[in-house]
Amino acid sequence: MQSFEYKCPTEVVFGKDAELKTAEKIKKYGGSRVLVLYGGGSAKRSGLIDRIETVLQQAGIAAEIMGGVHPNPRLSFAREAEKRAELFGADFVLAVGGGSVIDTAKAVAIGLAHPGKDIWDFWTRKEAVTGAYPVGVVLTIPAAGSETSDSAVLTDEETKRKRGLNTDFNRPQFAVLNPELTYTLPSFQLSCGITDMLMHTLDRYFTIDRNNQLTDEIAEAVMRVIVRNGRVAHCDQTNYDAMSELMWSGSVSHNNLTGLGNEKDFSVHQLGHELSAMFDVAHGASLSAVWDSWANYVMSSAPERFARYAEKVWGVWNGETEEKAKAGIMLTVRFFRSLGMPTCFSELQGVGIQSDEVLKQLASNCMYGGERTVGTFCKLDIPAAYEIY
Ligand code: NZQ
Ligand code: ZN
């Protein structure tokens, strides 16, 4: 087990009607003037925003409500929201939505703590983050895990760059998880969420470290629970128990518990981010579209790891190491297909990647033009990324 430091301070408030505790939690973490962010309208249509507004009003908390966060959230919107928060004198940012809304809230919170500086400079590492205003979350989609993660991902739509920023300052103060709030999700978004949460543990599980029993077994349990309940929720989206398991798994899968003592890989995420940056592909779809190709590319570097994955997550106990490894990959791909997810580029809706030039561009962008490699399980450079794409 490698040395690690682990801090996961987010208070999780789980269960039916949990959103009614939002005002109490905001006060607990020092908020009195709140910028409330939401997405393209689902939270407004479901009545959730009105409920939150009422709860805040009753508690005497002043609120400025701002909708319009786009999936794969845009830098320009985050800048606009930061200005609005400053004008309002916000001392707290509340995200009502999924990863896109939460990440925008995190960007606003970092911006507010560094007046006069441009948000993007933190994402490009020109500036170091030294603080953030407090953020709270009312989660509406089990997926990105941003409600407890130390990460926030933004897209600069002008340069088509999608970049993540990891810092402990990104951890929300609290996250409200009411599984009933997910019932209105479009089926495709639910499938994207299931894929993403599985991938957060997969991208940690395929690692060069091999002597890490507790983390490995936690990771395997999380993946089994996601697969089992993903199947149920895909067929019955208002199944409270299945959605509860998914909602909690989404948080646990990305709060780093499933990767402690290991070096993270995260190649599939990096490969996927370039697809989203160039074609605005939904995050979960960007991952399922490259995973098969990535797995087949890297499998020979550690077939025994893939074989263990096949055994522990998919129950494949028969066969030689390589046969089991291949079966595990095949069953994962089949699972994505059963959710209606794309598993290769030709299955990506609305993305016609036919030219070799596009593949080369994607590979180059992913490696910042050759300035970096991605992954630890198997280090990928431009030619490797090109092969996988
Ligand atoms: O915008 P609205 O109208 O709310 O609709 C959203 C959006 O279209 C819809 N939705 C969410 N909850 C709903 C609902 N529709 C009906 N009923 C509900 N209850 O779902 C769509 C997707 O929302 P989004 O917030 O984009 O989903 P997700 O949580 O998957 O977030 C994806 C973003 O998070 C980033 C991704 O790259 C992507 O930008 N990630 C953030 C991470 C982090 N901060 O730790 C880690 C992840 O790996 C990921 O990169
Ligand atoms: Zn993800």
UniProtKB/TrEMBL annotation:
One of its GO terms (molecular function) is methylglyoxal reductase (NADPH) (acetol producing) activity. It comes from the Bacteria. GO terms for cellular component: cytosol. InterPro entries: ADH_Fe/GldA, ADH_Fe_C, BDH-like. Coiled coil: none annotated. Keywords: Oxidoreductase. It holds the Pfam family ADH_Fe_C. Residues 195-367 form the Fe-containing alcohol dehydrogenase-like C-terminal domain. The keyword Oxidoreductase applies. Residues 9-179 form the Alcohol dehydrogenase iron-type/glycerol dehydrogenase GldA domain. SUPFAM superfamilies: Dehydroquinate synthase-like. This is Iron-containing alcohol dehydrogenase.
